[in-house]
Amino acid sequence: MQISYAREKLHSAVTGMAVSANSIERRVCDAYIYDLIHIRPAGLPPEMSAELTEIAAVMSTRQAFGDKGGAWASCSKLSDDDDCDVARKIVDLWERVDSSDPMRTWN
């Protein structure tokens, strides 16, 4: 069941990044804050858990400041290239989780 929840949250993250007109910084931050942060790495196979943990590490490199949390602070310090790299990692993780979910109803 955990992998189905991860698939749902990753799908939401990927869709949000794809359809938003916001900057890549904002899209990656939103994907992490509203979706990825809710996925428990322990509920994923080890290699996928490691990928999620790697994304979380990038998103937690800075301390919170003002009314912004650590993820926002971390995002604000990433270059556009780094934001794009995180976005690609999120998409790659979604593809892996999606293809391994036994509850998936299509091929």
Give structural notes.
With 107 residues, this protein is an all-alpha fold. It has one domain (2-100). The protein has helices at 2-19, 24-34, 46-58, 70-76, 80-100. It is globular.
Helix percent band: 55-70%
Structural class given helices, strands, pairing?
mainly alpha
Envelope shape: globular
What is the end-to-end distance?
19 Å
Query: β content, as a range?
Result: under 5%
- As residue ranges, the low-confidence spans are none
The DSSP helix count reads 5
Q: H/E order of the elements? A: HHHHH
Give a quick set of tags describing it.
globular; 107 residues; 5 helices; mainly alpha
Topology summary:
Layout (H helix, E strand, L loop, with lengths): L1 H18 L4 H11 L11 H13 L11 H7 L3 H21 L7
Helix pairs in contact: 1-2, 1-5, 2-4, 2-5, 3-5
Outline:
Helices cover 65% and strands 0% of the residues.
